[in-house]
């Protein structure tokens, strides 16, 4: 995103080009222009710009895209971590 | 309330002008007042006098989202399908799945939309895409999904331009103003923990060094929180580093320096100054790191990585700071 870059080489986004049918849906839903399309195949143009929202994977009709999408705020993740270890009662989230 | 007769029953016609109450409601929600119950009933609404071939726009039932949409579309004839997202905005609801394939299909069926309109096309906000699977919607209810724009403000141009999304309409931003409006609610949400931690801090430091020292520590702490919650996010692009905790720590360091000058730090002991320089940046860093949840470009994996490194460092800094204060007291 213009003026902002987050950490390098961390995102879990994967694209299987062999499966891709070149429909272009991923380009349509991605708010960070991560994908490009050439010769009926999508490609990862700017993988580090991905924020793992999961829109591309959910809207890919042939499941060529995978990404570990989910809540990305620190307090939400701390709560998640505490709940997993039964240190905190369920419910209550940063943005629930 | 005015009503529009359709083959599927009466549809409420909604006003596109926002009243004082709507504006005051939005302002209150920005400060966290009644924010979690600021909603409108889901269902189908008419803006203007839509005909069966008028476009159908889809949004969430957070009243602020609904208000922005109807206000932006003033003077047009459209259908507005409001999904039940329990008062959460489109993007957050999409992340949770409530603005999702299931609810969209359910609402299309419940409102008998297929009888109201002659076409089979739904227009969705781009930020709804993390919850909606377009091909599943088409398969399950026969309506095709088009993702229009990120911002409601671009909808008029989109509609006038034969429903073509320009590159600018699908480019996410995080402008000064977009960051600024998020700060009030973040401050309000931090209040509870600040009150508890601030009280404990005051009592501990007052027990060690007297009430004046307690008040100094409390002011330093509250300032570090405000720096992390407000200053860090507002100055985000200008603070160094990619990591939010680094940005927060830098802002916190600046606050430590400012506080040293403001509170007459020249008379403080060396251990106390060192404790201040360790603890305040750690507190600010934690709160700015938490702002990743509000940001429009951070990834979950990135936050996870950052937390793995930053949380132990912050914990260590706070521990050392406490030890320095104790040692300084008994030297």
Describe the structure.
Chain A has three helices and four strands; from the N terminus they run βαββαβα. By secondary structure, chain A is an alpha+beta fold. Chain A has a single domain (14-84), classed as Alpha-Beta Plaits (2-Layer Sandwich). Mean pLDDT of chain A is 89; it is low at 92-96. Chain B is built from 13 helices and seven strands. Chain B has helices at residues 20-30, 63-72, 90-96, 101-110, 113-116, 134-141, 155-160, 176-180, 183-209, 211-234, 244-262, 270-290, 300-330, and strands at residues 2-6, 9-14, 43-47, 56-60, 78-83, 121-124, 144-147. Chain B has a seven-stranded mixed beta sheet, with helices on both faces. In chain B, helix 10 crosses helix 11 (244-262), helix 10 (211-234) packs parallel to helix 12 and helix 11 (244-262) runs antiparallel to helix 12. Classes of the chains: A alpha+beta (96), B alpha/beta (331). Chain A binds chain B through residues 1-8, 10-12, 25, 28-33, 49-55, 58-59, 61, 68-78, 94-96, and chain B through 88, 92, 94-96, 126-127, 129-135, 147, 150, 165, 167, 170-174, 189, 236-237, 242-243, 286, 289-290, 292-294, 296-307.
| Order of strands across the main sheet of chain B | 1-2-3-5-4-6-7
Percent range for helical residues of chain B?
55-70%
Distance N to C terminus of chain A? 26 Å
Q: How many DSSP H or I helices of chain A?
A: 3
Order of helices and strands of chain A: EHEEHEH
Order of helices and strands of chain B: EEHEEHEHHHEHEHHHHHHH
